[in-house]
Inverse folding.
């Protein structure tokens, strides 16, 4: 077994040779002979080649020929279809590439793949391409419906862009029965002639059970239901009301008649408005909860919010971007509560033209929580 320094040195020299103009793709045994690798060192040679393969610097094509690859060219995102064929989208290119089912290798929807363009081959208006290596997996778990046979089972994915059913060995079924919604961990991605294989790691419930459809969506999109411990600790340390010291230096708008307008079942109220008319002019205030006062840059709360990106609204629940103590509490413009805000105060003429404005840090107090229906 080579040590790290020896491995890196040999990898560099062999890779440079494979990338040279003098090199013509050949098989592993032929390359070992060409490089005069003694039989006693063949195991070390294989270690070097395996390492180059794992790093994605070389590939072995279907004929067993060793080729170098350039990861900066001909790589893109694979988009699958229920029919088995797919498309490759490359950043910066308007047109994607068509991939026939026989040329998808073991790529699944969302994977980053290395591909080669099939010269002269077109499908409709699209140039055809062939996947030669999956660089990064997008799908590691699949949600779907289980079907059982005598000696094995299979899962039909909910995501129709995953064009093949997942084969489940009997010993890896966790006792699932026909119609169970399950989460499957993929253990083998298969190929163009073989279905992917997996093991069931969670049974969500039966397809006809109430609420199973919503939970299936949550699992399928990997939506985070729980917050990490350090995030909850930070949230629990947040105040429940505005500290008087935080008001200092802000424009005090608590005497302005202020309303929020949201759906009847909304819990987090992000924005509010005020509107008055003086001397033939309107004064419109738009107030946004000042979340940044409580969620500091690079704090655990900020990093978790960045990771989630947004709150997710489902039919029967909301998965908030920030813990409830903030999203429904100190960062929500609740009726009758002092709240910190960022406000844009605009002067508007009778024709609707904005003739003046200012943006400032404020403190507001909402007089009425209103709904779209009421308004």
């Amino acid at each position: 077994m080579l040590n790290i320094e020896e491995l890196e040195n040999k990898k560099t020299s062999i890779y440079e040779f494979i990338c040279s103009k003098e090199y013509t793709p050949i098989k592993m045994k032929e390359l070992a002979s060409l490089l005069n690798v003694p039989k006693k060192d063949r195991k070390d040679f294989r270690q070097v080649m395996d390492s180059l393969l794992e790093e994605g610097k070389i590939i072995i094509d279907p004929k067993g020929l060793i080729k170098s690859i350039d990861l900066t060219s001909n790589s893109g995102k694979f988009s699958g279809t229920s029919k088995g064929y797919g498309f490759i989208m490359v950043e910066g290119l308007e047109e994607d590439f068509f991939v026939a089912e026989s040329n998808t290798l073991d790529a699944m929807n969302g994977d980053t793949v290395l591909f080669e363009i099939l010269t002269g081959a077109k499908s409709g208006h699209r140039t055809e391409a062939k996947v030669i290596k999956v660089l990064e997996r997008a799908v590691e778990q699949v949600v779907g419906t289980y079907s059982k046979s005598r000696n094995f089972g299979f899962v039909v994915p909910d995501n129709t862009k995953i064009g093949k059913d997942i084969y489940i060995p009997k010993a890896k079924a966790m006792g699932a029965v026909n119609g169970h919604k399950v989460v499957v961990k993929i253990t083998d991605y298969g190929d163009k002639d073989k279905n992917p294989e997996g093991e069931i790691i969670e049974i969500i419930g039966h397809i006809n059970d109430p609420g199973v459809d919503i939970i299936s969506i949550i699992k399928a999109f990997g939506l985070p239901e729980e917050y990490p411990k350090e995030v909850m600790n930070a949230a629990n340390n947040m105040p429940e009301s505005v500290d008087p010291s935080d008001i200092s230096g802000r424009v005090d708008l608590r005497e302005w008649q202020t309303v929020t307008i949201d759906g009847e079942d909304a819990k987090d109220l992000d924005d509010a408005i005020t509107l008055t008319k003086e001397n033939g002019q309107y004064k419109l205030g738009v107030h946004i909860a000042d979340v940044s006062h409580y969620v500091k840059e690079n704090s655990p709360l900020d990093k978790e919010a960045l990771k989630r990106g947004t709150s997710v609204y489902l039919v029967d629940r909301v998965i908030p971007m920030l813990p409830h103590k903030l999203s429904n509490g100190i960062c929500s413009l609740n009726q009758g509560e002092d709240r910190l805000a960022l406000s844009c105060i605009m002067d508007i003429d009778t024709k609707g033209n904005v003739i003046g404005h200012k943006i400032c840090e404020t403190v507001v107090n909402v007089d009425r929580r209103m709904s779209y229906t009421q308004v």
